[in-house]
């Protein structure tokens, strides 16, 4: 059986699986979690946050092991509207790695890709019953007329394809 590197299994995010309350109020105590399949390679994991403009580094506790994954957590009180954080992993070989939303690296990262908790932030009431569409205009670009769909080129659900010019009113 091939051994999987712990770096490929490290996981955290700002959602209810990893944050006890992703939308806390100032003064509320929350728990941040991290999951990793360490296979005995990890010595400690640290929680690094910015508080009042200062970096604070605290040791996370290994709280449980579920299906081969080690779960680490750190509990703290929200004291400001925005909390940036990432993780520092110390291996048994005394190597240090930094884990943020973008990557795991040997270099100390900036806060640009940190996880972020926004205190007092709430979704508008209409969000839970809404559907969001993302439109990619480049997908509509036609480099050549030869690439365009031709009228009658194919049929779907009893309807033939129809070539139309960009400015024409849709059917």
Quick summary of this structure?
The protein is mostly beta strands and 171 residues long.
* Gross geometry: elongated
**Overall SS class:** mainly beta
Largest sheet, if any? 6 strands, antiparallel
Average pLDDT, to the nearest integer?
Answer: 90
In percent, how helical is the residue content? under 10%
Query: What's the Cα radius of gyration?
Result: 24 Å
Number of extended strands: 11
List the total number of helices: 0
Order of helices and strands: EEEEEEEEEEE
Share of residues in strands: 35-45%
Termini gap: 58 Å
User: Low-confidence parts, pLDDT < 50 over ≥5 residues?
Assistant: none
Q: What does this 3D model show about the protein?
A:
The strands form three sheets. Strands 2, 3, 6, 7, 8 and 9 form a six-stranded antiparallel beta sheet that branches. This protein is mostly beta strands and 171 residues long. It has strands spanning 29-36, 42-51, 54-59, 61-66, 69-77, 82-91, 96-99, 104-105, 115-118, 155-156, 159-160. The radius of gyration is 24 Å and the shape is elongated. Helix content is 0%, strand content 37%.
């Amino acid at each position: 059986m091939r051994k999987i590197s712990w770096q490929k299994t490290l996981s955290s995010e700002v959602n209810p699986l990893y944050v006890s309350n992703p939308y806390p109020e100032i003064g509320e105590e929350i728990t941040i979690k991290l999951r990793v399949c360490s296979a005995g390679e990890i010595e400690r994991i640290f929680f690094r946050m910015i508080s009042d403009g200062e970096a604070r580094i605290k040791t996370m506790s290994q709280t449980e092991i579920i299906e081969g994954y080690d779960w680490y957590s750190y509990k703290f009180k929200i004291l400001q509207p925005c909390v940036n954080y990432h993780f520092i992993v110390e291996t048994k070989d005394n190597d240090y790695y930094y884990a943020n939303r973008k990557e795991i690296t040997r270099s100390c990262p900036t806060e640009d890709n940190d996880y972020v908790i926004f205190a007092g932030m709430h979704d508008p009431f209409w969000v839970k019953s809404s559907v969001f569409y993302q439109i990619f205009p480049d997908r509509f670009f036609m480099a050549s007329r030869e690439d365009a769909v031709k009228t009658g080129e194919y049929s779907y659900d009893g309807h033939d394809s129809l070539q139309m010019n960009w400015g024409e009113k849709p059917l």
